[in-house]
Write a structure and sequence with these properties.
By secondary structure, this protein is α/β, with parallel strands linked by helices. The protein contains two helices and eight strands; from the N terminus they run E-H-E-E-E-E-H-E-E-E. The relative contact order is 0.21.
Length: 125
């Protein structure tokens, strides 16, 4: 029997934790935790609406350089996701239609890249 594997947490490197936290809150991410463990470690866990996987930002979280993380998320409707981004003041390009899905791209304030993909065969994301 194969064990179930679920992705739980993805570290996202940032330069300014409070700026990044505010950015993700504007997108509707829930702040699950914001805990300063000590002077070198602050753990901020945020979960996108409807997601079982969260991101973590903070001080002392990852050695990755800010702007180097790439994350892809499945959404039910790329056009609606684009509208949500624009309504939140987030810069994004046009909807990109490909044979394997419809995409919308954006970056956080540090340049970490996000792609939102709508797949016709998965209409609920």
């Amino acid at each position: 029997m194969t064990a179930t594997w679920k992705i739980e947490l993805i570290p996202v490197p940032v330069t300014d934790v409070d700026r990044a936290k505010a950015f993700y809150e504007r997108l509707g991410f829930n702040v699950d935790h914001d805990h300063k463990v000590n002077d070198n470690l602050r753990f901020v866990q945020l979960t996108p609406p409807g997601s079982a996987c969260s991101i973590v930002i903070g001080d002392g979280i990852t050695e990755k350089a800010p702007g180097t993380q790439e994350i892809q998320v499945v959404v039910p409707d790329a056009e609606a996701a684009r509208t949500q981004l624009l309504d939140a003041g987030i810069k994004t390009g046009d909807v990109d239609v490909q044979p394997w899905g419809t995409f919308v791209y954006f970056q956080d304030p540090d340049g970490n890249s996000w792609s939102l993909q709508a797949i016709e065969t998965r209409p609920n994301g």
